[in-house]
Amino acid sequence: MTEKFGEGVWARGGAICDRALALLAAATLFFMMCVTFLDVVMRKVLPGTFPAADELTKLSLGVLIFSSLPLIAVRREHLVISLFDNAFPRRMNRVRLVVIDLASAVLLGVLAWRLAVTAQRFGEFNDSTMLLGAPIAPFAWFMFATATLASAIALVLAIARLRATNNDA
């Protein structure tokens, strides 16, 4: 029932973005797997560790999570607890789902706003990782952009659900 809205809205303008984010998430996960493998091999076989493994894993984890955020939002595959589903009358189902989508849009918007503030601070102070010296601000700006995209998606899906006929909801 909910997939109709996400697929229709996303198909019109986001198929390329969808594939790009999915590919980025997959590549990031593969990269994290390689870093972890090298770290374990160096620890067990060689007399040392992969020095930047921790930093690479932390930065990669941020990219992985936030590149997946818009994909989760558009497919409505976020964590759902159906604790109160039966407490609402069936005819109120669409209203309840619109409220949930709007709440998601607002919360993701707040997350994006805080990420923008944080990214700006990282940029102002030229924060970077200890071993690699990689600047942190671009990663925070990426997180801001994907959280903003996820917020916009949730808003569009709420509007699409609100406009839908009772048969579609």
Question: What are the SSEs and their pairings?
Answer:
Elements: H1 3-13, H2 15-44, H3 53-75, H4 93-124, H5 137-163
Helix pairs in contact: 1-2, 1-5, 2-3, 3-5, 4-5
TL;DR?
With 169 residues, this protein is an all-alpha fold.
Structure description:
Helix 1 (3-13) crosses helix 2 (15-44) and helix 1 packs across helix 5. The model has no long low-confidence stretch (mean pLDDT 87). It contains five helices and no strands. The protein has one domain. Helix content is 73%, strand content 0%. The chain is mostly helical. The chain has helices at 3-13, 15-44, 53-75, 93-124, 137-163. The protein starts with a helix and ends in a 6-residue tail after the last helix. The longest helix has 32 residues, at 93-124.
Mean pLDDT score = 87
Spans of at least 5 consecutive residues whose pLDDT stays below 50 are none
Taking all Cα atoms into account, the compactness measure Rg is 20 Å
Order of helices and strands: HHHHH
Helix content: over 70%
Hey, roughly how much beta strand do the residues contain? under 5%
> What structural class do helix, strand and pairing data support?
mainly alpha
Give the total of beta strands: 0
Count the domains.
1
What is the molecular shape?
elongated
Main beta sheet, described? Answer: none
Tally of separate helices:
5
Terminal residue distance: 6 Å
Oligomeric state, counting identical vs distinct chains: single chain
